[in-house]
Amino acid sequence: MKILFVGDVFGSAGRHIVREHLPQLMETHAVDLLVINGENAAGGFGITPPLAEELFDLGAQVITTGNHIWDKREIFAYMAVPSDSHERGRRILRPANYAVTTPGFGLYEGTLADGQRYAVINLQGRVFMSSCDDPFRKADELLAIVARQSGAKVILVDVHAEASSEKAALGWYLDGRVTAVLGTHTHVPTADERILPEGTAYQTDVGMSGPYDSVIGVEKELVLQKFLTGMPGKFEAAKGNPKLAATLIECDGGTGRAFAIKRFLLGE
């Protein structure tokens, strides 16, 4: 089984480069499951229902997010669907370790056309991030739910976190229990992709699918001005030099153990 994970789609430049490369990537590598982090798809801050639909139309089975999920209020109602629904709104996730009263869910269990079961978990880190529940214990809780409900062996975890140490710790904590632990949020792709000893694919950060002539996606002049003066200002998504950042994982569908991982950074 082959899983393609596309890192944080940032603004119109990110959506453009994903549309440009994704069909060929999917076909060339015979991808079975496509997961996209889309939390910055709307101008770099949040995601709207039409943009979520656009990513689903490209073939995404699940869209993960992170700390910017609530930046666009239109997404609230889109995600407010029953837990047993398989509508598209149910397949966009917010971090599972948010308060239980927030809209949406942090776990999705699905079945591919060939009968292969899978699960996707979205977590957020706590180091240098806004307050949320413990991602380690939340992961334990969700894995128990997966074992009880679908029994899926193929499980992908998106860890949306700032600190590389926290992501690495989660990778080791979940080694052998999930197929992949992939980091998002920093918008900087890391070159540490590997298979951990018990069969879990790991990468600290998949990177941003968006404009690389920027400061992590934002127009560089605006960020420089803030650093130089300390004055607040409105950030805007950059557009120059877009690249798609993605990671491909190959695993055994019966056991969920990964045996190959490859990263991509593709420009125009």
List strands and helices in order, with pairings:
Elements: E1 2-6, H1 11-28, E2 33-37, H2 49-57, E3 62-64, H3 75-79, E4 107-111, E5 117-124, H4 135-149, E6 154-160, H5 164-174, E7 180-184, E8 194-195, E9 201-203, E10 210-211, H6 220-229, E11 242-251, E12 258-267
Parallel strand pairs: 1-2, 2-3, 5-6, 6-7, 7-9
Antiparallel strand pairs: 1-11, 4-5, 8-9, 10-11, 11-12
Assigned CATH architecture? 4-Layer Sandwich
Principal-axes geometry comes out as globular
Distance between the termini: 28 Å
> What number of structural domains do the residues give?
1
Cα radius of gyration in angstroms? 17 Å
What this model shows, in words?
With 268 residues, this protein is an alpha/beta fold. It has six helices and twelve strands. Strands 1, 2, 3, 10, 11 and 12 form a six-stranded mixed β-sheet that branches. Strands 4-5-6-7-9-8 form a six-stranded mixed β-sheet, covered by helices on one side. Strand 8 (194-195) and strand 9 form a beta hairpin. The longest helix has 18 residues, at 11-28.
Task: Describe this protein with a few key phrases.
268 residues, alpha/beta, 6-stranded mixed sheet
Task: Describe this structure in a few short sentences.
The protein is an alpha/beta fold and 268 residues long. Helix content is 25%, strand content 24%.
